[in-house]
Amino acid sequence: MNCVRSMMAAVLICLVHAVGNMTWAYGKEFPCAEDYAFVTEDGAWCWFSDPRAIYSGDEIFGGFVDKEGSIWAFQYNPATQDRAQTKVFDRLDYDDHANPSIIKLPDGRLAMFFSGHSDAPIYYVISKRPEDISEWDGPYSVSPEIDGKCGFCYSNPFILSEEGMMYLFFRGPNYKPCYIATTDLKTWSAPVTLLKSRPGRDENGRPYAKYASNGKDKIFIAFTDGHPRNQPANSIYFMLYDGGKYYKADGTEIPGVSDIYPDMTDKVYDATETYDKAWIWDVAFDKDENPVIVYARFSDTYNVHSYWYARWTGEKWENIFITEAGQWFMRNDYNDKNYIETEMNYSGGVYLDHSNPDIVYTSRPINNVFEIEKWTLTGDGSRWKKTAVTCGSEHDNVRPFVVRDCPEGMPGLMWMYNYRYPSYTAFDCAIRLNRLDKGFSGEWSKKAVSEVADRVSDRQMKHMQETSSDLSEAKCWRSAVLYNGLIDWVCTVGDGGRLKFIKDYFDRLDWQVGDRMYHADDHCIAQAYLDMYGKYGDSRMLVPTKARMDWVIANPPGENIDITEGHSDRWWWCDALYMAPAIYMRLYSITGDKKYVKFAHKEYLATYGHLYDTEERMFFRDGNFIDKRNEEGKKIFWSRGNGWVLAGLAEILKALPQEDRKYRPFYESLFVEMCEKIASLQGADGYWRTDLLSPDIYPMPETSGTGLFVYAMMYGINAGILDDDAYLPVVKKGWEAMVEAVNTEGRVGWTQMVADRPGAVERKNEREYSAGSLLMAASEIYRYIGTK
């Protein structure tokens, strides 16, 4: 059984992970990349330095290069998901070719090897203690004397126990695969150039090599003529080191121990026959120590990559097609038609499971995102069974790698997760493992609440930066709800940096509301503006909003409030009770001018009289739903619509003075009445379904309504309006549900998209308003914790 958990096991783990979290029951069969755990959130690697990671005991040890060019060691426990990392070299080279390799020494200590991209020297560090990355001896260095104008690159260490020798393979200054050897990591042998080109046959060619070892007496070597970009035909070759000599796969000895010509070895794939160049990706061996190779081919005609599997049967080499693989994975500015991609041969990646080389992992584009797939050779060895590892991911997943010495049943598949990768010297990547992330904690502590709220806010603020040029989107109600949550959160935790970011963002909007004069959706952003005015006292933040609301009051909308009877400029839909009334209440609080509260109260009562069902104590979304019934024959009350109302009531009550006796009692009474009803409709898993009276019609979780309810009730508890004993269990259960819907990237999933009624929801769905509701809820919970 291979060391990487099978996909059936992955699905079982999904279910185990979902104990108390039934969201998976409504999800897709396979996770997206964002459901998997991070090994590091800032790291990358090339595929020509291996092993990139190893198991020792029940933990994974490895290394990576970060986006500052620093070299790091990491330690990861898959069972607990505890992870640690230690910088071993500062700012070596911002280049993914600089990633380190790692090996376990006979005494249990760890050694890591690395160099800059074609730089000198080769560095290495040795851990002070076995299976412990916290302290290292070194860095030490070695500079083998090899003629050439290039530096060193790539590192591949192996220990052969029967020789008592460590071999370190690398690319030398001569651009050729070379090695040095040692018995004590202090004194190194003279360098040996392993391969070279025949005179007159591209002597400047640079063969790319991959290595594997049985750890006893053999080293398996697969290599190319050179770089596929530079070679007219780039073939794949193989040879075996055994007992100081080199052999072909059939046992034929290759003369010499250095300066071996490719045509003296096995030609596994002959590019001159197909005119499709190739590049090596991995080599391993089966239980009989027959070599297995995976590589990529490139069609010059269509510039399409494909993955291939080659194996020695004992008598001959077989090349088996795996799959088409799209094109290169870098993402540059392809609008520049003068730009020519310099690394057209950077495939997503193909890699062998070294414990069972019948299993291959690939990265290829699915719906324009590179996804990881598992391919298992079946039947007579000519057919493949494909299983998705990632599906529907947000970002590209590339360069899969299987951790060496992986215990049976443990996760061992790792890959790069690309936020941005235009070049090997300009990347922003993470590294993930095929272990479902344990998720954020729903614990009621400031630390736990901050972790999830910060991740959600970071994601949304990054999105704001990327889309700031779209002014209509920036001022729409969907974004406005997010701003309310962001401001609540950053003010609660005192994050001046983020508050300034929001201020600068609003400066670009000139503090303007939307274009429609009466429409509540276009007014909603004014809530955030007025909150910022409360912080800064800058009249620029107040004047545009005040001018618009003054105009509306001076030019009141027509009398019709029933949308079924024709056009209406009033608050004819219940969502509007969140979008607009709190603006007028804030203006009343700021200016003391009662015209604002009078107007808002008059309009609120009109909507209340039109849409509120006193029997069910909830609001119909609009006049279209008053007489409608769902398939169960029940009235239709939409979760998010009533969430808008309840959260809107919280905003109104925040703005109205505590001593107010004319308006506040109505809103407080309605708030309590609705909270009592809504609390009774919460699902056992903490979510409210989109159809509040008929949860079985759309049984999947939904976060936008849930988040608004949690926020409103938590506000009510903090304000002393709701009883702790009655409502705190409801809020806690709802908060845990919201947290479970947040993935590792801070995406709040299970969000019903823009709608006006109950409907189906997908786990992948997110919108700004769910993030905003979570942040508003987080703010109230954080405040509550601070008082206890």
UniProtKB/TrEMBL annotation:
Give GO terms for biological process: carbohydrate metabolic process
Q: Which Pfam families match?
A: BNR_4, Glyco_hydro_88
Q: Which CDD domains match?
A: Sialidase_non-viral
Family annotation (InterPro entries): 6-hairpin_glycosidase_sf (IPR008928), 6hp_glycosidase-like_sf (IPR012341), Glyco_hydro_88 (IPR010905), PolySaccharide_Degr_Enz (IPR052043), Sialidase_sf (IPR036278)
Which protein are we looking at? Glycoside hydrolase family 88 protein
- Range of residues in the leader sequence: 1-18
Query: Which keywords, in A-to-Z order, does the entry hold?
Result: Hydrolase, Signal
Gene Ontology molecular function terms on file:
hydrolase activity
What species is this protein from? Answer: Candidatus Cryptobacteroides merdavium
